[in-house]
Design goal:
- The protein has 506 residues and is mainly α.
- The protein has 23 helices and 4 strands.
- The N and C termini lie close together (6 Å).
């Protein structure tokens, strides 16, 4: 592997992160009225830009030629250093421990949404913060949400769109970061595809921000909520998440945009190009839509007649079907898209509801979306492959002819899908066992914490439910879950390959 090239490009990515971090300074100036907060955010951004620029200058003569090793190395270390430098504002502004800041920032960039910030954070971590989100400065809250927005479409994809020097031979970078089993490149030029994806991303962000602002949120809350929605992240400016607003209008807008964010962004681009039926012509989208429909209706039926407690503490006694439907559709879409927002404490829901939500955690969003999980396209291919294998018991000499959207799927993609599923489940089990060994309180907490982090979801069940945080985990537990978040966001292979001895050989 060309280590000098990796350092050169990762340095460029670090400069991009520093420039994005700088945008939190005017927010702090307008909203915090604290010279200390402004200065510390400014120091964080300037330091990040300076370090990135220095290493970029040192290795400026390195020739840009990407191979598989360089692509995997740049993406993995690019995300790692984005989280390291991105955690500086948390340490300087609100005196987080380094491991808490690293956990929170990695959760932000990977759009996991798992948080250690809670009203009892001082007791849990020994920091000076004592009242959770309410005590975080606006500038830091803005940066926290922006990490979602930057990580949603991808730090490297953003850099490909704005840095011409990365667009010369960047196919390996694009493939290593964009989620999904197949390459949904829009145009032959990688940089052009990246710009198109980010244009759609920005457009949806602007529309949602305006709609939320018109619904009663402040402009600041609207933007921060949009960052988390479009990126399927889950960070909120409120401790009670979206449930704090108790608004059917806000629930509806957030649900709609979570649904869009969980679908393939290439389909949204084709819709904007005047092809309105492309969504329902796509097999994966239809599969995604019907899973949500079935899960929503059955969960709503199960909830009908029960007491539903919102995350804000508001109680709906003996909820009717339409009240149940309101909470059901929001939570089903939030979990399957791996956003992780909550309006109700689904920890208290009937067992059937908890089981459905757990299954949806593994399914996740569509390929080419900002969602995590295994992805609907992979689940669909696995189902088709399983049916084909059952049919071969009857017709032994028949050939495998699995198609998706009318195109025959190559055996290489099928093998890659099967191995991804096996590795995903295997790592989920391994991390669950390790969490139990590290003193996790019960097996449900360990299982759902592992699923929530490798699937980039955020909340799980039991002690990591929607009314809980990850603040109580040990330092080793937090670092383990942080690594799991990175694995999940970069779809396993990109990170795991760097642990192979052959990866580092010439």
């Amino acid at each position: 592997m060309n280590i000098k090239l990796v350092i050169k490009v990762v340095s460029s990515l670090t400069v991009v992160i520093g420039i994005a971090m700088f945008s939190s300074v005017p927010v702090a100036w307008l909203m915090d009225n604290s010279s200390s907060v402004i200065c510390r955010l400014l120091i964080s951004s300037v330091f990040t830009i300076a370090v990135g620029a220095a290493f970029r200058y040192i290795f400026r003569e390195t020739e840009i030629q990407f191979g598989f090793r360089e692509g995997f190395g740049i993406v993995t270390f690019g995300w790692l250093f984005a989280a390291i430098f991105g955690s500086i504002p948390f340490c300087l502004v609100s005196h987080f421990n380094w491991y808490d800041a690293f956990f929170e920032t990695m959760s932000g960039f990977t759009t996991t949404g798992a948080s250690i910030i809670s009203p009892d954070l001082a007791l849990a971590t020994g920091t000076k913060l004592s009242h959770g989100l309410a005590d975080l400065p606006a500038g830091l809250l803005y940066w926290r949400s922006l990490t979602h927005w930057l990580g949603g479409m991808g730090i490297v994809v953003l850099s490909l769109a704005i840095l011409p020097t990365l667009g010369l031979s960047a196919h390996q970078l694009y493939n290593a970061e964009v989620p999904g089993p197949t390459d949904d490149q829009i145009t032959p030029r990688i940089a052009t595809s990246a710009k198109i994806l980010w244009t759609v991303y920005v457009l949806l962000s602007v529309i949602e921000t305006v709609l939320l602002w018109s619904g009663g949120m402040t402009l600041f809350e609207s933007w921060c909520t949009t960052c988390s929605t479009i990126a399927t992240g889950g960070f909120s400016t409120q401790q009670a998440s979206i449930g704090a607003y108790n608004s059917v209008y806000i629930d509806s807008i957030v649900t709609f945009f979570m649904f869009l964010a969980g679908a393939n962004f290439v389909l949204h681009y084709k819709l904007l190009r005047g092809k309105p039926l492309m969504h329902f012509k796509d097999e994966e989208f239809r599969f995604y839509f019907f899973i949500i429909l079935i899960a929503t209706v059955t969960v709503a039926i199960s909830l009908t007649g029960t007491d539903i407690e919102m995350t804000s503490g508001v109680m709906y006694k003996n909820a009717g079907f339409f009240e149940s439907l309101r909470f059901s559709v929001f939570q089903v879409v939030s979990i399957i898209t791996t956003t992780g927002f909550a309006t109700a404490d689904f920890n208290l829901w009937p067992a059937y509801c908890g089981l459905i939500l757990l299954i949806l955690m593994f399914i996740g969003g569509c390929g080419g979306s900002t969602g995590g999980g295994i992805k609907n396209s992979r689940i669909l291919l696995l189902l088709k492959y399983s049916i084909a294998q059952i049919e071969r018991r009857l017709f032994v000499r028949s050939l495998s002819n699995i198609r998706l959207n009318g195109h025959r799927i190559d055996n290489t993609i099928l093998h890659r899908t099967l191995s991804f599923f096996f590795i995903f489940i295997g790592l989920f089990v391994l991390f669950s066992i390790l969490l139990c060994c590290l003193g996790t309180r019960d097996i449900v907490t360990a299982l759902t914490a592992s699923a929530a982090c490798i699937g980039n979801i955020g909340p799980g069940l039991a002690d990591v439910g929607p009314a809980c945080t990850y603040a109580w985990f040990s330092v080793s537990g937090k670092l383990l879950l942080t690594f799991e978040m990175l694995l999940g966001r970069l779809e396993l292979y990109t990170v795991l390959v760097i642990f192979l001895p052959t990866f580092w050989k010439k």
